[in-house]
Amino acid sequence: MKKIVITGGAGFIGSHVVRLFVTKYPEYHIYNLDALTYAGNLENLVDIENKPNYTFIKGDITDETFIADLFDKHQFDGVIHLAAESHVDRSIEDPLAFVKTNVFGTVHLLNAAKKQWLNNPEGKRFYHISTDEVYGSLGAEGLFTETTAYDPNSPYSASKASSDHFVRAYGETYDLPFVITNCSNNYGPNHFPEKLIPLFINNIINNKPLPVYGDGNYTRDWLFVVDHARAIDLVFHHGKNHDTYNIGGFNEWKNIDLVRLLCSIMDGKLGRAAGKSAELITYVKDRPGHDLRYAIDASKINKELGWKPSVTFEQGLEITVNWYLNNSEWLQHVTSGAYASYYEKQYL
Ligand code: NAD
Ligand code: TYD
């Protein structure tokens, strides 16, 4: 039986990856290693928590001894590394927290994997999940490819770029078997409501202002989280060793256009008059160092592994909005406590 540790498996993307692997591969044992920070939530996984091939381990990847002991104990065959501090606005407030988890944490995992696999790398794989934000910002034209130079602008993207470099360096220096993917903005169920789409859904439900940064003319390429998890499954099993793949939604939206679309969907769902939710749009101070545009050329993963998104943006948004409307308890739980003070500091 293959033993695979998925880090950050209680978070947004991680929980979808854990669910896919636990249900699709009963022959694997899946260990979900997560510190349960503000962004980690075991409520995301209640449907699979009793499966015989699933174990949750509460632990912090910044704890070097804990990580070394854990790898000694379990002798994992694969690592799918998603644990991270993931929110750009938080990275602007506290860059060091991002260095600790995203850089130090990644290097502790690399050291532990290297020690286990040095003499038997056959069938082993360290899969590092990264972001397109490492490439910096595009102008009005062009797309990020796997050969675009790294040019990170935020403390978040700088920490992810650094961790990507460490993974590649361990591949070159110690022949550690690895693969890296750089993905565009995800959306979907279980997304913590500090990021644009879930924050705005939550605010529309609660009739709160929708804080659009700057003029709203910033562009992101949105991908449904389940399609990202499908890509991760493909790359983990069939991606080329020591290679990187870009993953994107072929789905660019200016923030303000996306917000208007979301408002009109929510008007329909909440039985409000057309245009009512859009009245909540409020232009606020811009994010410092705000990247103008991200857009991915995902043709390599499409050609080599046959991956493409399975749902349209309209379908994905419909699933997402319905999920938030049907899971008000989840929203209540994650927006109480520490979230409330973050929100107050960020927006009021
Ligand atoms: P998230 O913030 O929702 O979840 C992160 C998870 O990591 C949480 O469960 C948290 O508890 C855990 N974690 C944080 N610090 C930890 C630590 N020190 N030790 C152990 N666990 C820790 O993030 P997400 O949006 O699901 O992103 C997952 C990964 O995908 C990240 O590496 C992120 O950089 C990358 N990524 C995200 C997006 C996106 O749009 N969300 C896009 C591309 C890549
Ligand atoms: P976000 O969801 O934080 O993802 P990222 O910064 O990683 O792309 O933000 C998506 C876009 O939405 C980005 O251009 C910033 C913008 N934004 C707002 O305009 N208002 C907000 O309150 C937030 C959180 C984001």
Which CATH C-level class is it? Alpha Beta
- The CATH topology name reads Rossmann fold
> How large, in whole angstroms, is the Cα Rg?
20 Å
Could you tell me the strand content as a percent range? Answer: 15-25%
Helix and strand sequence = EHEEHEHHEHEEHEEHEEHEHHHH
Number of helices: 12
- CATH superfamily descriptor: NAD(P)-binding Rossmann-like Domain
Count all strands and give the number.
12
Q: Briefly note the structural class of the backbone.
A: alpha/beta
The largest β sheet comes out as: 7 strands, parallel
Helicity range:
40-55%
Q: Based on the structure given, which CATH architecture is correct? A: 3-Layer(aba) Sandwich
Cα(first) to Cα(last) distance is 52 Å
Bound molecules: nicotinamide-adenine-dinucleotide, thymidine-5'-diphosphate
Give the strand line-up of the largest sheet.
3-2-1-4-5-6-10
Q: Low-confidence parts lasting 5 or more residues at pLDDT below 50? A: none
How many structural domains can be distinguished in the coordinates?
Answer: 1
Q: Overall 3D geometry?
A: globular
Average of the residue pLDDT scores:
97
